[in-house]
């Protein structure tokens, strides 16, 4: 038997391949949106990487052209900051009061205070009276002065100090 011409064999192979691909099409269409999104995100990441690399190279080149600032405008240092005081504290111009605040120790009723997260502290505040809360607030302001802790302590002090009928939750 004589083999069929090459063109006929290629045409038959193409027809079978087209049929196989047509049968796989429904499965491929289901994953198509995910594939397109994935490829678009990869392309975006590659572009971002190239832009970043170019910026770094540009910084390297330009850094040699500009003199280095001794102290950038945006830099702040701890010794430049003014201390935060509450209305019950002595004004900041009293150096003795500042020294007492600086050496204040963690309140005895909450010795692990510095290691507590804000959620852990919130859970313990319900067991403290107004005087203990004020002591914690003074300690926080004298040391870390973290805005979220100061705010929560202030709200809890207002709640504890409020008359029974006007209580709010912290």
TrEMBL record:
Superkingdom classification of source: Bacteria
Region annotation (Disordered) ranges:
72-94
Task: Tell me which residues make up the DUF8129 domain.
Answer: 119-157
Q: Sorted alphabetically, which Pfam families does this protein's record hold?
A: DUF8129
Query: What are the Acidic residues biased-composition ranges?
Result: 72-82
Q: InterPro entries of this UniProt entry?
A: DUF8129 (IPR058442), LipDrop-assoc (IPR047728)
NCBIfam families to which the protein is assigned, alphabetical: LipDrop_Rv1109c
Name by which UniProt lists this protein: DUF8129 domain-containing protein
Kindly list the organism's lineage: Bacteria, Bacillati, Actinomycetota, Actinomycetes, Pseudonocardiales
């Amino acid at each position: 038997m004589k083999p069929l011409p090459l063109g006929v064999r290629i045409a038959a192979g193409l027809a079978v391949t087209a049929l196989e691909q047509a049968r796989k099409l429904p499965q491929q269409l289901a994953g198509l949106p995910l594939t397109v999104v994935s490829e678009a995100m990869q392309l975006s990441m590659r572009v971002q990487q190239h832009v970043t690399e170019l910026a770094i190279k540009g910084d390297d080149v330009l850094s040699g052209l500009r003199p280095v600032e001794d102290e950038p405008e945006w830099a702040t240092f701890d010794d430049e900051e003014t201390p935060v005081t509450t209305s019950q504290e002595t004004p900041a111009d009293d150096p003795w009061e500042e020294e007492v605040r600086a050496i204040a120790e963690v309140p005895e009723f909450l010795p692990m205070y510095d290691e507590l997260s804000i959620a852990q502290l919130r859970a313990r505040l319900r067991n403290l009276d107004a005087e203990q809360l004020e002591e914690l607030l003074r300690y926080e302001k004298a040391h870390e002065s973290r805005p979220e802790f100061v705010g929560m302590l202030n709200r809890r002090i207002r709640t504890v100090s409020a008359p029974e009928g006007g209580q709010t939750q912290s």
